[in-house]
Amino acid sequence: MFARRIVVVGTGYVGLTTGACLASLGHRVVCSDVNATKIEQLNSGEVGIHEPGLAELVQEGIAAGRLKFAVGSADAVAEAEVVFLCVPTPMGSGGAADLAAVESVVREVREVLPRGCVLVTKSTVPVGTAARLSELVGRPDVAAVSNPEFLREGSAVRDFLNPDRIVVGSDTQDAAERVAALYARLGAPTVLTDAASAEMVKYAANCFLATKLSYVNAIAELCERLGADIADVTEGMGYDRRIGQSFLQPGPGWGGSCLPKDTAALLQVAEAVSFDFPMLRATISANSHQRMRMVAKVREACGGSLDGVRLGVLGLTFKAGTDDLRDSPALEVARLLAEEGADLIAYDPGLRGDEPGLPASLTLVDDPYLAAKESAALVVLTEWQEFRALDWGRVAGVLTGPVVVDTRNHLDPDVLRRAGLSWRGVGRTPVPAM
Ligand SMILES: NC(=O)c1ccc[n+]([C@@H]2O[C@H](COP(=O)([O-])OP(=O)(O)OC[C@H]3O[C@@H](n4cnc5c(N)ncnc54)[C@H](O)[C@@H]3O)[C@@H](O)[C@H]2O)c1
Ligand SMILES: O=c1ccn([C@@H]2O[C@H](COP(=O)(O)OP(=O)(O)O[C@H]3O[C@H](CO)[C@@H](O)[C@H](O)[C@H]3O)[C@@H](O)[C@H]2O)c(=O)[nH]1
């Protein structure tokens, strides 16, 4: 294997994982960022995000001399053979992906990229972006390549090093092959395409996953109305290998930093080419409905009104195993509960307590029993493993109302029943207290 000189621009979940993992594969990597404080911390081996194994890989990379960090990108790219763009592409106006950060990096580096360098977008970008960036760079010796990333937060390192597939697309095949070769040691199936198809794979995959979840959440609602049990239904569906067991867990709706913005962006792209996409619109609107439905469940469990009601909340991050609150359905449900007048006492093992943007009527505590104390009901919004192991007898002792609303079907209703608590989940028959 040839070790390559690589620059990764952006040191967030994707960029830092990419940089540290590529260094662990033997490449020489410089990770650059506009955030000087972040770079200072990284230089001393400190990783500010919660990703299992990432801090260790960063420290190993630094110690081996294969991983370095830099503020700004122009100097960093001076000797690069491959430059990965891993900067944010947030939801912009009308739902479109905002490419300002991507374009600003390209403007910053275009004149200083070494001859024959490959410019790779790992950020999620709309179809046509590689072609647009090629024009923006304006140099025939620099090829643009799309190499979408499929890692999940909370398992970023594991996903990066054990990918289901690697997708690399370019209108310059030789450049695509050079990028694919960086991953050769992973032995993953590799799909080589043109640039537009690689860009499309990312949106098609994320929107498919979102649609799968909206579908499951709708089936769960139907189960409630018809007296079926969603856990049995998804188990029965999932054994069909064409469906698969994963991504079938109902919840308060799907969220995070990717699925919401990527569904909105594909819808916007479709509209731009006059393609009506009612299926994707329904996927998105079903997700808003799901959040409202969880609020209605809590309201009903509390006797019809939430005004002045104290609620304990377990979990605010968009899923377990991350500290990320971006587009969190849990946080959105908490906001909606607060809007109806509830006072929220929340506990989340992933949060430190200094996170901005929490509702004013929400108090974050560092102990789940404090969240339950004197609350009229306990609402589980994120599926942290440790919630299962709580002393439910102790929880029952401090709650003023014996009700748990479990929007993730995460707890064992039988354990709660024996502890004297009633359980209400999603798509399953409620279980009254013993
Ligand atoms: N988070 C995920 O799970 C995930 C997975 C696959 C793909 N993606 C995509 O990857 C991209 C990055 O996502 P993320 O979650 O890693 O973002 P992030 O917000 O965690 O990190 C982005 C980093 O880029 C830096 N940055 C911003 N502008 C910059 C600039 N002009 N120059 C240098 N650095 C700059 C920021 O300071 C930050 O450190 C997005 O397009 C996203 O859709 C994300
Ligand atoms: O059975 C399930 C699985 C997930 N979720 C929810 O769906 C959302 C997204 O979860 P997940 O996909 O695990 O999170 P991300 O880390 O955002 O990863 C998604 O978005 C990334 C960014 O594009 C992609 O790289 C990944 O492949 C894609 O899974 C979260 O709110 C989860 O709680 C469910 O409700 N039920």
From TrEMBL:
Pathway: Nucleotide-sugar biosynthesis; UDP-alpha-D-glucuronate biosynthesis; UDP-alpha-D-glucuronate from UDP-alpha-D-glucose: step 1/1. It holds the Pfam family UDPG_MGDP_dh_N. One of its GO terms (molecular function) is oxidoreductase activity. Its EC number is 1.1.1.22. It is an enzyme of class 1 (oxidoreductase). It comes from the Bacteria. The keyword Lipid biosynthesis does not apply. Keywords: NAD, Oxidoreductase. The keyword rRNA processing does not apply. SUPFAM superfamilies: 6-phosphogluconate dehydrogenase C-terminal domain-like, NAD(P)-binding Rossmann-fold domains, UDP-glucose/GDP-mannose dehydrogenase C-terminal domain. It catalyses: UDP-alpha-D-glucose + 2 NAD(+) + H2O = UDP-alpha-D-glucuronate + 2 NADH + 3 H(+). Residues 312-413 form the UDP-glucose/GDP-mannose dehydrogenase C-terminal domain. InterPro entries: 6-PGluconate_DH-like_C_sf, NAD(P)-bd_dom_sf, UDP-Glc/GDP-Man, UDP-Glc/GDP-Man_DH_C, UDP-Glc/GDP-Man_DH_C_sf, UDP-Glc/GDP-Man_DH_dimer, UDP-Glc/GDP-Man_DH_N, UDPglc_DH_bac. NCBIfam families: NDP-sugDHase. Belongs to the UDP-glucose/GDP-mannose dehydrogenase family. This is UDP-glucose 6-dehydrogenase. It comes from Saccharopolyspora griseoalba.
